[in-house]
Amino acid sequence: MPGILHSLIGADVKMARTMTSSNPRSVRLGLLGGRQPSASPPLRVLLARAGWDSLWTPVDAGGAEPTQDDALRIGVVAESVEQLPIATSHLWLRGDAARRARESVAAARDAHRALPDLSADAGDVRALEDLRSMAVMPVLGPASIEQLLDLLRYCDGNVAVCLPASPGRTEAEARARLARDPELEAVAATAAALVGTLEQCQESVGVLQAAGMRELRLRLPATSDLADVIAQTSALGVGSLARVRPGTPRSQAPNAPTGWGGRT
């Protein structure tokens, strides 16, 4: 199951845009919420502590209400037109609601005329143009790396990408986490995915950022160490990306701990 990096190298994709250290850009990180360990703090608490930008919760899951101290955008995901209208400040249209975008957008804006944050999935150039005409931010993916890079060419910079992700300290740890969530593993098997070491994931995000992505919305595996995964993944959003260049040599892996595998 190849991740973004391996797919990119295999396809020999060439990008017109590049990142430069004189103009570093950060990526806003969002989480598409789902199941979490029962003993874990609420997702909104974990994400706020890790410096993420947004949490997106399905409308039928009873999304969390933001408090005055929240640094997060708390958004709602609507999958069908029948779930609209929704009086919320942050709305993401997916599934049938995105396919019937004009009807959905009209219903959402009728319910919340000052709706400041409206986004919708887009699977092709026609959908991108349609959303742009309605002042709606497009969300690309899950899709292959070739499809994502092709669609990013038609975007004006205000675009998000949604991907499955399972980072780890090693590739084996990343894949073991993903295997604990068969539903997410199935999605990752048919689309670009951030699966591998943190450095591999950073390089992959750097590729998409250089192509024009400004927001990354992730689905993480339902794993007992979700708090640790969120903490690791926060490095994909800021700071370190300015030092990551697609295609450059990776840093050397750290030595194994003392005593590991019988070492002294």
Tell me about this structure.
The protein is an alpha/beta fold and 264 residues long. It has one domain: TIM Barrel. 33% of the residues lie in helices and 18% in strands. It contains ten helices and nine strands. It has helices at residues 4-11, 43-50, 95-99, 101-111, 125-133, 145-152, 171-179, 182-189, 198-210, 226-233; strands at residues 28-32, 54-58, 73-78, 90-93, 117-121, 137-140, 160-168, 194-197, 215-219. The chain starts with a helix and ends in a 31-residue tail after the last helix.
Q: Report the helical percentage.
A: 25-40%
Structural class: alpha/beta
The average pLDDT score comes to 81
CATH architecture: Alpha-Beta Barrel
Which percent band covers the strand fraction? 15-25%
Report the CATH topology name: TIM Barrel
Runs in which pLDDT lies below 50 for 5 or more consecutive residues are 5-24, 63-69, 239-244, 260-264
Largest beta sheet: strand ordering: 1-2-3-4-5-6-7-9
Strand-and-helix sequence, N→C? HEHEEEHHEHEHEHHEHEH
The count of DSSP E runs of length 2 or more, i.e. the number of strands, is: 9
Number of helical segments?
Answer: 10
User: How widely separated are the two ends?
Assistant: 35 Å
> CATH first level: which class?
Alpha Beta
> Radius of gyration over alpha carbons?
19 Å
Biggest sheet, in brief? 8 strands, parallel, barrel
Give the tally of structural domains: 1
Shape: globular
